[in-house]
UniProtKB/TrEMBL annotation, chains A, B:
Protein name, UniProt field: FAD-binding oxidoreductase
Family: Belongs to the FAD-binding oxidoreductase/transferase type 4 family.
Pfam families reported for this sequence: FAD-oxidase_C, FAD_binding_4
InterPro entries per record: FAD-bd_oxidored_4_C (IPR004113), FAD-bd_PCMH (IPR016166), FAD-bd_PCMH-like_sf (IPR036318), FAD-bd_PCMH_sub1 (IPR016167), FAD-bd_PCMH_sub2 (IPR016169), FAD-linked_Oxase-like_C (IPR016164), FAD-oxidored/transferase_4 (IPR051264), Oxid_FAD_bind_N (IPR006094)
Domain FAD-binding PCMH-type: 33-211
Keywords on record: FAD, Flavoprotein
PANTHER family reported in the protein's UniProt record: BLL6224 PROTEIN, D-2-HYDROXYGLUTARATE DEHYDROGENASE, MITOCHONDRIAL
Length: 469, 469
């Protein structure tokens, strides 16, 4: 086949996978999507990515980039396209300590960025469960969020520069390292969150921040979400914005955790309505170094705020992490979320964002409506509450498409009524195309199509994703 | 004239200015540019802006938005186009305290946003000299920076949602209020910093932050920029990133200040090589409330850091603001910058950004080269040093275009050699078109043109700006 021969000429025969060798890339890790690429190519440089894209263009074949394959929305699936795996583009080109930035290729796994930064006393503040396999190109392409967005922003806000291979194989070099650069349109913004539909991200310049000297981490029980949010506000005021994570696990989550991962334990003997994991962090020596009593001042501060809330009845129980081991145990219970969804049968997963003061109303409404629609359905919620970002997952009683779609509509109706978004941090891919068609402003969809046509006139860059037909 | 009649029908006869009534809008405030619009229209609503754009489209006439007319790059000049002044779209639609955001129209003056936020105990953290006249639509269209970017980011990072009238009069509603919303391409990013070339921004949702409870402000003298930068790093470490401004004024600036604004005084009796204005701020009660000795802890911290640097000889003199009046006096000397440039004859102004550790090298190189090129030329530098953003202004000995262009090239050569950008925070407009043509990556220019064609196929939205022909 001429296409395969040309790809082999572009990257070397060993880096063109076909047949069963493609199995690992062709299927998403949750097993929800099964693609059928014509080949998986593994270029080792930006020039090789460009060469592959030109070969695909010459043959009129779609091009679909893939990184760590940890996506949740089917964003890398293709039938008949060439998959470009960035996994060999895994060089960290530079860590610049004074400028607090890292220059890295798209195939660098997040945890390697964490390690490289930490070795220099710095921190790469993008943090979520899949950090051991997710790659830089993928988190940029989906504008990934995670647990620390509250403090440091989403991927978009961490990106200073970008290198992109365009649909015709031209290389767009936007690898600036400056904090102010208004030299024309800020083109990198178009490719961040575009899921490979406008070009393939091959490298980026990402901000680093000072490595925290101390964390203050606690798990606490509350009766309601509004009660819990009082804690967020008080800690933000007391620390001047040093809260890094504020994660919410309702009773249904704790029950499922006990059922599926009894080895991880639970924070409390009882089963509270609301469990919160809060973490603050500081880079200030005076806040991080133990005082005369041996207490870390930031931890003592969290303790005082929690004590006040316990007294007022806003918090009903609380445990403070006294060691890194205890801190890790608290996070393990939160990061088991993805696993907890496995093995519960048919699934409708959502990734919604709400104004913080509407989260409680959302949960009440959606659970009542779900009970009316499908009485036996289970649900599982876990949330980056500090951002208003909920992963509300439903396990309906049947696997038929009509029921699943009605469940999805039910959730999204409630989100829309409360001023939220149906898509927060996982991307659109294939899974949210119907939602885009139903919920997104029609003018916005028209403008997206115009941008897509301008940058990818032949419609070969990850076709069929993000923008509904 | 049919065009004028149609515009009158769209917004009412009283809001269509022609002839001498347009003088205020047709000329930029520095008097560098003189336009000749066919009319200035003053729509009072988004629907009226859309109507004006449709009228202009029907007549095939360009459309150029204008706000406070405080721009520095000729971005609102037009000969033969319709100017759309947003000044009557000056409603603050909502200040949402819990969500910490403001919903405002494009014609709202920045200082009104400051006041509206402060009334609710919040702060709108975009701050620069022209805040009394610059309007929201203009700061978004230029992605304006200013003195607090170090702490809060540029305009782009403060924007949550946007409303835009497109080239054909459609209204694009992106007025989201969420911190996570990945529902397709983040289209608002395209219009921020596009200077009206892709559409007219009519309203926005902007983030607010907690109002600082206390400031610690000082003016200090140092021998060199690298010495001064040690202070920035030490204060950032000691406070965990609470430095809001770090402004640099070299000896030439102080000399010009004494000459042009003797009423403002100088911080020191002598004339130091490097004068720095540093300001930190805190929202934490424990850092803001005077202790037993009557000292504000944040101010005491700045004092201790400065004392250490005086002892080491890194700082040669320092004054701490002991009252709001003293603080304002320090800022008045910094914010006189624009005025100080007036009356010095022909001018070549620049707005460049450099990596922080290259600022000293830039100044040394560029002054030496300028001395060689045009020995009698004066220069005036003022800088948001914390961002690496320098306003380096040259007053050449002659007014001929060739000399001025050589001066500009000299500055931009040095910027390019040191990894900087020729455009930091003022925008491109007309003034930086030659620099865009000479310095910007050709592929990036091609992509900008493709985006422009996609959104404005007839090329009628602020034509001839930002992207060189």
């Amino acid at each position: 086949m001429a296409l395969i021969e040309d790809l082999r000429a572009a990257v070397g025969a060993a880096q063109v996978l076909t047949g069963t060798d493609m199995a690992r890339h062709a299927r998403d890790w949750l097993g929800k999507y099964q693609g059928a690429p014509v080949a998986v190519v593994r270029p080792g440089s930006t020039a090789e990515v460009a060469a592959c894209v030109r070969v695909a263009a010459a043959h009129g074949v779609p091009v679909v980039p893939v990184g760590g394959n940890t996506g949740l929305v089917g964003g890398t699936m293709t039938t008949g396209g060439v998959m470009v795996s960035l996994e060999r583009m895994n060089r960290i080109r530079a860590v610049k300590c004074d400028a607090r930035l890292v220059v890295a290729e798209a195939g660098v796994i997040l945890s390697r960025l964490h390690d490289a930064a930490e070795a220099e006393g710095l921190y790469f503040p993008l943090w979520f469960g899949a950090r051991g396999s997710a790659m830089l190109g993928g988190v940029l392409s989906t504008n990934a969020g995670g647990s620390n967005v509250l403090r440091y922003g989403s991927t978009r806000g961490l990106c200073l520069g970008l290198e992109v291979v365009l649909a015709d194989g031209r290389v767009l070099d936007l690898m600036g390292e400056l904090h102010k650069d208004n030299s024309g349109y800020d083109l990198k913004q178009m490719f961040i969150g575009a899921e490979g539909t406008l070009g393939i991200i091959t490298a980026a310049v990402m901000k680093l921040v000072p490595l925290p000297r101390a964390h203050a981490t606690a798990t606490l029980a509350a009766r309601s979400v509004p009660d819990a949010l009082v804690l967020l506000n008080r800690m933000q005021e007391a620390t001047g914005g040093r809260v890094e994570a504020f994660e919410f696990m309702p009773r249904s989550y704790s029950e499922r955790l006990r059922e599926a991962r009894p080895d991880l334990g639970l924070a409390f003997d009882h089963m509270p309505e609301v469990t919160i994991l809060i973490e603050a962090a500081t880079t200030v020596p005076a806040e991080a170094e133990p005082d005369a009593t041996g207490e870390v001042p930031l931890v003592a501060l969290l303790e005082r705020v929690l004590a006040g809330m316990l007294e007022e009845g806003l918090v009903t129980d609380a445990v403070i992490a006294r060691s890194e081991q205890q801190r890790r145990a608290m996070w393990a219970r939160r990061e088991a979320a993805a696993e907890l969804c496995l093995g519960l049968g048919p699934i409708v997963d959502t990734d919604v964002c709400l104004p913080l003061d509407r989260v409680e109303a959302f949960l009440v409404q959606v659970l009542a409506r779900l009970e009316a629609l499908d009485p036996g359905a289970r649900s599982l919620t876990v949330a980056h509450l500090g951002d208003g970002n909920l992963h509300f997952t439903v396990f309906p009683t049947g696997d038929d498409a009509v029921l699943k779609d009605r469940v999805l509509e039910l959730v999204e109706d409630a989100v829309e009524e409360l001023g939220g978004s149906f898509s927060a941090e996982h991307g659109v891919g294939l899974s949210k195309l119907p939602s885009m068609a139903r919920r997104k402003d029609p003018v916005a969809l028209e403008v997206m199509r115009a941008v897509k046509r301008a940058l990818d006139p032949e419609g070969r860059m990850n076709p069929g994703k993000v923008i509904p037909a």
